[in-house]
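Exercise 7.
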Amino acid sequence: MRIAILGATSQIAKDLGQSFAAQSNHELVLYARRPDVVAKWLSRVCLAGRYAEADFAAFSANEHFDAILNFVGVGDPAQAAAMGATIFDITLKYDELALDYVRQHPDCRYLFLSSGAAYGASFDAPVDANTKATIAINNLHPQDWYAVAKLHAECRHRSMEHLSIVDIRVFNYFSHTQNMEARFLMTDIVRTIRDKTVLKTSAAYMVRDYLTPCDFYSLINAILSSPATNAAVDCYSLAPLDKMTLLAAMQENFGLRYEVLQSTSIFDATGIKPHYYSLNKRAKDFGYQPVLTSWEGVFNETNKVLNLSNNLSQGEAI
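Solution. The predicted structure, written as tokens, is:
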């Protein structure tokens, strides 16, 4: 299968590229605004020559692709906040790039990386197959732009029911390759352990369902291997994880030191979400079956981060 990856500098796209390299013979073409960055990354992970990298300007309807995977977007709440309303233009621009291609080549599959934020819900409870997207149309705030951009794209995709388009709603993703300076709970935790500091966190209850690279690859592979369709799926692991259980487990296994504050400001560019995960298991219709719970995935990826950090420190000492 020949696959175009749009937004190849995104970390989740890089993780998927390495998973493809290890487990499949697919031919990938990695498109980005900065192809030189992609080339350096390919060299660093020993994949130079395995995949081609290219500027978006080189993307052409004359090339043959069996699938297009669109990862263009933001993976950091701070970045989402900084982008503001421009996220509408960026999302539309690259979505239209892919849609133009599949309109001309209807046999080509299109996988769009959406977000659980598309539900626009308060997430006072986990979403499911019957949850309606809710947008405060008369009281919109900048933190809503990301969610609305994803919802708008999904609505466009469902209107093209004759085309094979699958929207993949990612809720929580964690990988040892992530930027540990980003402002997520998991990156805050790992950074605290790495730097031997104390995590100060709110007492607010929250539950997350962390997908990690191996199960994300399984989901993508299941969709690409299934009959063509037009649909949306939610990402999920074998089991979610609540915040206090996570903190206690990180303390026991990695020596995390933390302090729970009854009142503190919470950074969340897309809103506070107590139960940001889904019970919608539509993905199983594609043959997807996760193999890890949230804790198992987090444990594995944290081990990799800290081992890498320790190896770097030892190397510097030598």
